Amino acid sequence: MAETTTDKANEALFSPYKMGKFSLSHRVVLAPMTRCRAPNGIPHQAHVEYYTQRSTSGGFLITEGTLISPTAGGFPRCPGIYNKEQVEAWKKVVDAVHAKGAIIFCQLWHVGRASHQVLQPGGAAPISSTSKPISKRWRILLPDGTHGLYPNPRPLKTFEILEVVEDYRLAALNAIEAGFDGIEIHGAHGYLIDQFLKDGINDRTDEYGGPLSNRCKFITQVVQAVVAAIGADRVGVRISPAIDHLDATDSDPLSLGLAVVQRLNKIQVDSGSRLTYLHVTQPRYTAYGQTESGRHGSEDEEAKLVRTCRRAYQGTFICSGGYTRELGIEAVAQGDADLVSYGRLFISNPDLVLRFKLKAPLNRYVRATFYTPDPVVGYTDYPFLSKSHGLVSRL
Ligand SMILES: Cc1cc2nc3c(=O)[nH]c(=O)nc-3n(C[C@H](O)[C@H](O)[C@H](O)COP(=O)(O)O)c2cc1C
């Protein structure tokens, strides 16, 4: 059969890729996405179904943000990875994904001040780098389905910061115990690590605040601790220097991005092994929450920031944020990324990989069911391409 334009364009997204020790068959990654379907913090059968639906042989999946400790949560019904019951429950998800030949990392998450007393043990204030609350521009989704204001956080005392680093380390070990191929450290989108990185939030006067080198200390310690526990080749890191989600602004996102990249490069040299990847979100998309995400600069400036981080980072680079099939092809073909993660399109298209490959039409996502509790509706009931079209996936 003659080669078509689609075949040629597909080469970029559908060429195999060696991500460290993992052999991927294509470049379309499931982005981490909180879906609020884990009552009591335990993943269940619906998770098995949701993740297997999105698994392909040689595909790469990143789980939803998964809580590293009881204080880490800021959304209702988020799964954790800090106790035995959670580890056992995740094993079922991981086994099912592996049975389909896919690779799965667990995203380790602490939301910091993006929480509320009703989500904290003993009704305590959420922890952060700062005592400043998230502004009234943002609302938190509460367990009863209403939205509230973010409360005043409690700034961590200096000695407590290493206790949180230890929580990341233990959570990473638990993830490996559950069978995950690795973990992603969520350092993006205005959550705890970003609350240390960004000078629009971090107002500390100890060695974790002030100059960029101090603001990078927490993420560096977390990555070092996790790398020492499970090996660099099972660790990915996600950052979003230019995203102002939850007031996470910085006066110089480019320098911030580069500072983190330099530290990751150094950790790779020191540990004698590459990290699995760096995952950078760019703000070229309307927000996934209730409020529109701001833009830091023009589309050109944003693209420049991501490209500069990509060039400076010595290893696999994943980009995310508003990518379509065509933009993903362009990013990989131009060398702007090795892999592209897809969020919302993957929510509504469990067989997104096949649809991209065939250039088939896509289901539209329903924002209203992103964070609802139903284990089926808006979660596992988005239709696959009809088998009556003869489009049975061999991926
Ligand atoms: C419902 C929803 C939940 C999300 N939860 C997370 C999360 O837990 N961790 C994270 O790093 N990003 C999260 N994101 C951001 C996505 O990973 C992704 O970067 C974002 O949706 C932009 O990509 P897209 O334009 O392909 O959707 C979430 C996005 C959505 C839509």
TrEMBL record:
Residues 13-361 form the NADH:flavin oxidoreductase/NADH oxidase N-terminal domain. It comes from the Eukaryota. GO terms for molecular function: 12-oxophytodienoate reductase activity; FMN binding. Keywords: Flavoprotein, FMN, NADP, Oxidoreductase. Belongs to the NADH:flavin oxidoreductase/NADH oxidase family. PANTHER family: 12-OXOPHYTODIENOATE REDUCTASE 3, NADH OXIDOREDUCTASE-RELATED. This is 12-oxophytodienoate reductase. It comes from Actinidia chinensis var. chinensis (Chinese soft-hair kiwi).
